[in-house]
Each structure stands twice: as structure tokens, then as C-alpha cells.
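ok trying again, last paste got cut off:
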Amino acid sequence: MTVAATSTALLGFGQVRHTRHRPQRNAFAYPTYFLMLPMRSLRAHGQDALARNRRAALSFHDADHGDGRADSLEWLETVLHQNGIHDALGEVWLHTYPRVFGYAFKPVSFWYCHRADGSLRAVLAEVNNTFGERHCYLLDAPRYGQPCEADKVFHVSPFCPVRGRYRFVFMRTDGPSPRTVARIDYFDDAQSEQALLNTSVSGELLPLNARTLRRALWTYPAMTLGVIARIHWQALRLWLKQAPFFRQPPAPAEFVSAPVTPSPTSSP
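nice, full thing came through this time. structure:
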């Protein structure tokens, strides 16, 4: 599919879901909201209602992404060019959590990079762990609704080993009720088709304006603090359930994993 061109920054309202299948099942779902930002349109036409790189109750800061430079889109474009991706000349949509009252923790952000005709060219998944480390998985030539894979090389949870692979599926619909879904399944055995974890974030996309900002802040005033609190609460539950524990290994030598091609398997 293609994504209609628009210069409107969006807020997504939806759910995060997480299911661990072994050694004991542990599942949860909770409401969330997130930013969906058309980075090239914002560069060309301004920020609309978005508080960018300044203090606000809900804001976006470029330094929270990439290598911390003042223009995160410039960083992304450099990464694409360094990895031989020169035709992602259309809109770049960034799916990420905002800062709320100055605080942010972003477990994963997705940079959706489109061709000039609106088709998807690449996705960069930017992952942060609770140890202050960051790593990026660059997915080459993915398609909406079809799986693509990357080898796991970055430590995220002490209850998961650094081995196996991720399977990503991205979906985006436009029209009267636009929505987005990002699904990540983790397979701790590279040869197995039985996932250890299924995770997803999904939501309805609405224009970012004064009304939707109020809805986000009034409904979830401590959203980003809640994200980190839930991570630690779920870690305690896994420890009580005697899930295997893995010590933190050194971070990968490369900040961005080399591009990987779509999985030959069919969409789940």
C-alpha cells in the first residue's frame, strides 16, 4: 500500500500488548498514546501545534533520537545513505513517544521512510534499553502487512538472551479513521517458529492539535513515567515466575545493524 501525502503531525491513541509464552505465560495490555510525525513536512512547513526542542507539557526533542544531534532527520538521512538507500525521498514518518513534563523513555521508535511515490522503502527501528543504551535495526525494502526479520544483537531485557531473531510486521491504513500497527515477535531460537514474545503497539491516528493534546495529558498525565514503571513491574513478575536471567553483555560494536531483507515467510 501507499501512504497519502500530508503535512499534519498526528497523535496515536491505542494499546501496547505483550505476551511471553515460556517458561510461564505472562501477558499484559495497557492504553497508550504516541506521536506520528511527518519529519520532512515539519522541516519544510514548520511544527504546527508540536512543541519541538523546547519546554512544554508534551514535547518532541530531536536529541532523544539517533546520535543526539540537533536535527534527527539529518542523522537518519545520513544512516540511509551510508547503507546504500538513496531512493527514500518521500515522507519520513517517525512513530515515537513524546517527552511528558520533560521526561521521556522510548523503548522503541520507528522511522518509516517512503519513496517519492509514497511506497515504503525502509524502516529503522530505534531501540532503547533501561541501561541507557541504544541500537538501531535498519530494515531494507519492507512492505506494509508483510513480515521482515532481523537478528537480535542488542540487550533489552535481562530475561531474554541476545540471540535469535525479530520478526516485524507494520500496517498503516488511511481514510476516515487512520490507524497504525507495529508488531514485533521475538524468536529466541533462530530455527524455531515458536515465538518467545509477541509485542505490538497500535492506535487510531488523530491530528495533533490543542484538543488532542489535552486529551492525551488529561487521560494519561504520567504516561512516560508509567512506561518505565510497568517495565520494572513486569520484570518483577518474571523474576517471581523464575524466568531465566541473563546478564547484560557488551553493546554491539556497530550502532546500526546492516540492512536486512524481507522474510520469505508468509504474513502471520
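cool. Confidence is low (pLDDT under 50) at residues 264-268. Residues 10-260 form one domain.
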